[in-house]
Amino acid sequence: MLLNNILSLFAAPPKRAAQIPCYCISHMEPKVPDRFFTDIIALGEYGQDLPLHISKIDAFWHEARPVAFASAGCFAMSKIIQTTTGSPVVGLCSFRKILLPKAYRPDDPSAFQVEIRHEDVKNLSLSDTLPPKAGQDFFVAGPLMFPDGIIGQYSKNHILRDLLDFTSLCIDLGVLTSEQAKDFLLCPLFIPGGSDFGFYPAQWLAKSQSRLELVGRTFVNQYRERILSYERFEVRALSYLTERLGSYFVLMELMERYQWKPTFHLTNEFGSGVQMLCGQEHLGPIPPEIFGRMHVFVDSYGSYKGGLAD
Length: 310
Fold this sequence. Notes:
The chain contains eleven helices and eleven strands. The chain has helices at residues 2-8, 54-57, 59-63, 65-68, 71-75, 77-84, 149-157, 160-172, 178-186, 202-228, 237-258; strands spanning 22-26, 39-42, 89-94, 97-100, 113-116, 140-141, 144-145, 189-190, 198-201, 276-277, 291-297. Strands 2-1-3-9 form a four-stranded mixed sheet. Strands 4, 5, 6 and 11 form a four-stranded mixed sheet that branches. The protein has a three-stranded antiparallel sheet with strand order 8-7-10. It is an alpha/beta fold.
């Protein structure tokens, strides 16, 4: 027994599972504590000495950042996955938002994102944001329902012409078929963050972001001046559009995996743009653990205003 105990001191330590990489896309010092991510994809003037500054990955998106915003960093993921990570799962967060399995402070149950301060999650770290089940490779925000579909919600809240031009490019570039484009526009479910926020199978994400990047690059080349003429909210049009298409990609993958085809009644008139959290009863056989809650770090509760260009 004594000999075995002595020999055990020289035994190789048990292997730990490789850490799942999580990339924080940020144009400034992240408000998300650094224990929640492993690397920063830096944008703009921030972090130009960092190894994953966008200028070192793709000069086009570095130059186009005034119209692409955080999407510039997301578009880089295909190259990053192919060259720097061998992990089967990768994560993305933003400079102020993370995804958690549950809400970490009392909040409006209908709100899709929860405001938190650093002290609310002082005992949490990256391991608490990972897909909660072994072998689970998707962990995304819980879906919202748009009774009028993506097109109805977009027409209420944004500039419909952008969505139609963007969707037309998807068809022209072979990213969507005409039938898929129709399904996309009428899709009554929307995952906040799309394929830009959460955890995903690495190779799936590389393919998804490659397709989004193709459409995004073409959209910027054709419509840059129009988008830059918009005010602080709508100038983020490309981010709104790719978030919705990324959401569609995620939903299509989950539907195929779980052999699930949702059926919803859509209203005939666009424009109500109603948003609500989609209950599990609408999600059929998709495991509820796949969906988490978006959390945004704030200095004081009630201070966050989303969608404004910095």
